[in-house]
Amino acid sequence: MENNGIQQQWDDFHKHVERRDVIFYYMGYFSQTIIAAMADAVKLRAEQAGAVAATRRKLFSSFVEMAQNIVHYSADPTNREEDAGPSMRHGAVFISHTDDRYYLHCANPVKSDVAEKLQQKLEHVCSLTMDEIKVKYKELLRSETPVDSKGAGLGFLTMARDASAPLEFELAPRSGEGTLMFYLRATI
Q1: Total domains in the fold of the chain
Q2: Name one Pfam family in it (predicted).
Q3: Residue 183 structural domain
Q4: Which band of pLDDT confidence, cut at 50, 70 and 90, is reported for residue 1?
Q5: What is the CATH number of the domain that holds 101?
Q6: What strands, in cross-sheet order, belong to the sheet with 101-110?
Q7: Does pTM top 0.90 for this prediction?
């Protein structure tokens, strides 16, 4: 049996990964259990890639925040709202290493009302100086969780605090889906 086509595709993908220095990639369903397993893999891969301890901590915390955002905000639930138990949401994350910098990317579909809130939050975070980010982070740690928040509201601030460049994001319409695709990138 000859599988040259499949093997060639695999080889091409592998060459692409090597060329881009991708140290972690996942596209599929996210749940808390899957995030925990991926977090272990990210820790190990960052160590193998030679990241110093402070960089590994920043990569890990930003990765977890991105993955949590997918679980909380992806418009692609695998179970209905009325179903009991944890949900799984679809999205993608990858981490690459180029020129002594690590780039964390995530992507997932979001409903338009969620997209609007994400855009407002990210525009605000991106407008802050590093000192303002640190002050806002401490304020939120001490305050109560907002009613409409899935967490303490610290995710984007955590990533911005750990990043070596401003967070980058984009919201792109999806054809015929009624949702937008949310892309986020953090540079460590």
Answers
A1: 1
A2: DUF6272
A3: 4-187
A4: very low
A5: 3.30.565.10
A6: 22-30, 89-98, 101-110, 180-187, 168-173
A7: no
